[in-house]
User: What shape does this take?
Amino acid sequence: MSSRMLRPVRADRRTTSPRSAAPLGRRLPLVAAAVVAAGLTAACGPSSEPAGSAAAATAGQSAQALSGSQSATPAAETSPTASASPSASASASASASPTASRAPSGSASSGGGSAKPARTSAAPAPAKVPGPGYDSSADAQKQIDAALRAAKADGRMVLLDFGANWCGNCKAADKVFAQSQTAGILGASYHLVKVDIGGNSSANSALLRKYSPSGGTYTMPVLVVVSPSGTVRTDTHVTGNPSLTADGINAFLRKWAS
Assistant: This one.
């Protein structure tokens, strides 16, 4: 009977001894922490902030410092870019400006001595070519004088065409004068004056004898080429008329144009 009662007691002793030791082990660190805290309070003085606020503030400051360093990092990264962009633009402008400055010199040098000098004066406009027929009321002398003055100014020859409105050969010559190629030669090289000798104008007959003095019977048209100085160069009353075609008249005009 006694042996049966001792086994539970021993079991209780075995189970209760560890339980009573565990709370004592837990209390010892707390007691030590309280002693350390009391010592810190006595050394530094009482704190106005609640416990744990210093640690929170310290953690907050470290977080702010970390965030500040992170936010400053993009600014530090962008500032070299901003400082590099002006240098890049400056280098671009510096590299472009010499090219622009060298372009005129290059164009000037490329011309070299092969460039033709610019003309000081434009070529004279083509002289006016009269239409077909002969104006019996015109003052032929004034027209010849004006043509000679113009010839002295531009170096062209004066072509005197003595004829009549009823003359078939004169009409044939007028048709050739109206063609574009012949008119171009006349306008470029001659001042053409048409003198009517088919009427009763003694003044015009006197002009014919002045520029074709050989006399006799005239075969119309009589073509007389006069230089700017007033000298007769050729007279078809002496040489005979060219063929009254485009080829014949053009050859005649080219021959005496210079």
Remarks:
- The beta strands are 157-163, 190-196, 222-226, 232-235.
- Helices lie at 2-44, 53-111, 140-154, 168-177, 180-189, 202-211, 236-239, 246-255.
- The CA atoms of residues 16 and 22 lie 10 Å apart.
